Amino acid sequence: MITRSSPPEARRATGPRSVPLPGRQEQCLAIDELTDSVRAGRSAVLVLVGEAGIGKTRLLEYAAGAAADLRIAQVAGWEPEARLAYAALHRLLRPYLDRTARLPSPQRDALAAAFGLAAGVRADRFLVGLATLTLLADVACGLPLVCLVDDAHWLDRETVAVLAFIARRLRAERIGLMIAARDEPVPPPALDGLPRLPIAGLPDRAARELLALAAPGRIAPLVAGRMIAETRGNPLALIELTGQLSADQLAGGASLPDRLPLSQGMRAHFLRRVRIMPATTRSLLLIAAVAPADDIAVIWRTAALLGLPDDAPDPAVAAGILTAAPAFAFRHPLIASAVYSGAPAAQRRRVHAGVAEATDRDADPDRRAWHLAEATAGLDEDVAAELERASPRARARGGYPMLARFLSRAAELTPHPQRRAGRLLGAAQAHLAAGDPVAAGRRLEQAASGPHTPAMRAAAQQTRAALAWFGGEVATVVSAMMLEAATEPDLPAQLSHGILFDALTAAMLSRQHTAGTTIADVARAARRAPGRGQAPASTTRLLLDAFATRVLDGFTPAVPHLRAAMVALRTDRELAHGAIPFAAIGNWAAQELLDDEAHEAILRHAASLARERGALHALETALHGLASCATWAGDFARADALYAEAADVGTITGTGDDGSAARQIELLAWRGREAPVRAAADCAFNDWEARRGLAVVGNHARNALAILELGHGRYQQALAWTLPGFHDDVIGQGNRMLPNLIEAAVRAGDRPSAQAALARLAERASASGTAWALGVLARSRALLTDDDGAHARYCEATEALAGSRMATELARTHLLHGEWLRRRKRRTEARTHLRIAHDAFTDMGATAFAERARVELLATGQHGRPRTVPAGHDLTSQETRVAALAATGATNTEIATQLFVTASTVEYHLNKIFRKLDITSRRQLARALAAPPD
C-alpha cells in the first residue's frame, strides 16, 4: 500500500519515552510540557515553524515517543492534495468516523458533506470545525489524545482552517495539537497567533555529531565546518550532503565544489535519484504524487491503465525513496514534490488522465472532473462543462472556495466567450461568498471582456455592489446601471428582486450620502419590479414592498406590508441574501413598528439558522441585534456577553474590532459612561458616516448621545442631538427617537418641537398598536399634559410597557411619573415610583438614570439603596459569555454549541467563574451578574 504520510489511524504508542535529540533540548522540553499538560487533563497547542529539512518531522517523532502512553493521531500535508478540500482532514478523522453518530445532526451532516458522504448538504467549514472539535473531544474522553500534523504548508486550505478553529478553542478536552509548517514564504495565515516554536539550524556541536553519524567514513573538521556554515545547520541538508560528496572530499583529501548542492540543489538531488529509477518506477512514483493519498485502489487502477507491472515500486524501495511494505510512503515530502514538478508536462497530463479514468464517476465526480481538467491542454468545452456540473458537489464538500476553484478552472478551458464570461462571473460570486474580494474583483474584471446576457449584466452589477460593500463604500453601491440592470424586462424575478433589495438596503443605510441617485429613485425602481402583488411572495419581495411603500407613501400605508414581512422573517429558512444578511435589514420592519417581541423573535431565528449553518457573517449581525434587545430589556450583562460573542465571531471572519465601540454606543449611553460614549460617537461620525457613507450609524450615535444627556439631565443638549433625526426620519430609527425628543423638548421648554414629535408618534403608535408603541405614546402625552390628567396617562404607559420587554422604557416611565408627582407635592406617591425606577436602574447598571432617580428620592425625604458590585467580578469576555448563557438555564452542551467550543471547555470556564464570583451553583449566577464591575 502506498501512502504519503504515516497511517492516519489512531494508535497507542508502546515504546519508552523518547530520548532528547542532540541540539534540540529546548524544543524537546516544550514538547514534554505539552504532553504533560495533556496528561494532567488540560489541552495544549504548539506550532513548529522552520525551513524544509530543519527537523520538524523528527521533533514530531520525538513527540510521538513522549506521548507513548497516550492516544496518537497523525496526518501530513501533501502537495497534490492541497487544492482538494478537506482531503487531509478526512485522513486524520477516518479512524473515528464510526463515532459521528454521536454528533449533533447539523455537525454530522456538515462533516459527511465535507467528505463527500452526503448529498444536498453544505459543508460549511465552521460547522465542520465544530464537528471535528466535538469528535476529537469525544475520542479524548477515554484516553488523552495527541494530534501530530506535519507539512501544514501542504494541507488544503479548509483543513488548515479547521485545525486553526480547533486550536483556538481547546481548553480542558485533554487534547494536544502539534502542527509543523515551513516558514518560507510564510506559514499558513490561519495559524497566526497560535503558540509558535521556531526551529532553527542545529548548533555547531550537535551538527558535527550528526555528520559523524551520517558520514560513511571520517569527516575532516574543516569540511564539516563548511558544510555546517553553508547549510546553516539544516539536518536534512547535512545528511544529503554526506551522500553527495565522495569519501575523499569528506575526509579533506579532495577539494569540494565551489557551490555545495543545497536548498534548490536538494530538490535537484532528489530528482537525480528518481531519474536513475526504471521508467516504470518513475511512472508509479508520479501516480503516487497525483492520486488521492488515501485511495490505494485508484493508484493501482491507474498503474494498470498505464501498463505498469506489480513490481514497479521495488527499485524505489531499495533506493530508499519509498519506505518498505506493507505501507509504502515517500521518505520525505520533498521527494514527492520533486517527482511532480520535475516530470514533463505531457507526462503529468497523462497521469492525471489515468487517475481520472480510474476514479469512480458516481462516487467522486468532483475529483474525477478536476483530474480531467489537469489532464487537458488548451480549450475543451466538454471538460469545462463536466467541471461546472461537478461544482455543486465541490461546494458541498469544500464550500465556496472550492466552488470558485472549479468555476475558475472551467472558465480557463471554455472556448465560447459568453460561456467563459458566465463561468468567470460565477467564480467571482463564489470568491466573494468565500470572503476573498480581491480574487472576486480579478474574476469580475476578466468576465467584463466577454459578451453578456441581460441576466449576466445584472449579476455583474450585483457583484460590483457587493465588492463595494466589502470595501466599506456603501454610498457607491447603488448606481443607475445597477437599477437599469435590475429592471430588464426578461430578467428572472428572483435576480431582479435580489439586486433591488441590495440597492434599496444600501440607499437606506447611506441615505443622503448615496452617490448618483436618491432613496426615492431606488424605491420607485423597486416598485416597478415584476411580481408586485403576486402571491405567494418571497420574503425579498415582501421587504421590497414594505420599504418602498414606506419611502414613497409614508408610514401608515406601509404598516400592512411591514407586518407581512415580519411574519415571513420569523420562519424564512433563507435569511441571507447578496452582500447583507436579511437579519441586518429585516428587523428594521420590527423597529419601525416598535414591535420588540417581533424584533427579538426575528433575530433569534436568524441567529439559530446562522449557527446551524455556520454562517458567521449573518451570525455576527444577528448577535449585534440581540445585544440591542438585551440592552432595551435592561439586561446589560447579557448584552455584554452578546457583544463579546459577536467580537469573537468577527475575529474569525476578519472584521475583528472594526467599529465595535460604535456598535455598543447605546449600551454605553445607558450606563452613563460619558467619555467612552463620546469617543464612540466620534468614530461613528468620522469613520462610519463621513468616510464610509453609513448615515444610519451616525444617526444611531445621535440617539445614543441623547440618552446619555437625558440620563444626566442635560435636556437642551439632548434636544440638539434628537432634532436632526426628527427631520431625517430614518427608517427603523426615527420612531425610536421620538420619545427621547419629546422628553428633551418638554424639559428644555421647546413645546412646538415636542408637539410636532407627539403628532407623528400618535399617528404611528396608533397604526402599530404594540405595547411598546402605545406605552411610549401615553408617556409622551403625559409629558405634554398640564393638568392632573397626566397621572392617568402615566399609569396607562406603565401598564402598557409592563407587557413588553422594554425594561428601560418602563423604568423611565416610573422616573418621569415620580418626578411629576413630586412637583405636584404628592411625595408619598412619588416615592413609590421613584424607588421602583431607582432600583431598576441600579440593578441594570444605568448609573446616570439611577443617580437622577436618587436625587429625586432625596427631594422626597428618602434615600435610595446603594448599588453593590460582586467581589472579584473580573471575568474574561469568554467567561462572561459562558456565565450569561448558564444563567439563562442553558446546559453545557447548549452553551458549547452556541460558542463553538466543547462541553468540557464550558465546564472549565464555569469552575473559574464560580471561583471569581464566589458562588457555588448556577442558580446564583443571575444575581452575581446583575451588576457589572466598576
From TrEMBL:
Keywords: ATP-binding, Nucleotide-binding. It comes from the Bacteria. CDD domains: LuxR_C_like. Residues 1-22 are annotated as: Disordered. Signal peptide: none annotated. InterPro entries: AAA_16, P-loop_NTPase, Sig_transdc_resp-reg_C-effctor, Tscrpt_reg_LuxR_C, WH-like_DNA-bd_sf. Residues 868-933 form the HTH luxR-type domain. This is LuxR family transcriptional regulator. It comes from Rugosimonospora acidiphila. The lineage of its organism: Bacteria, Bacillati, Actinomycetota, Actinomycetes, Micromonosporales.
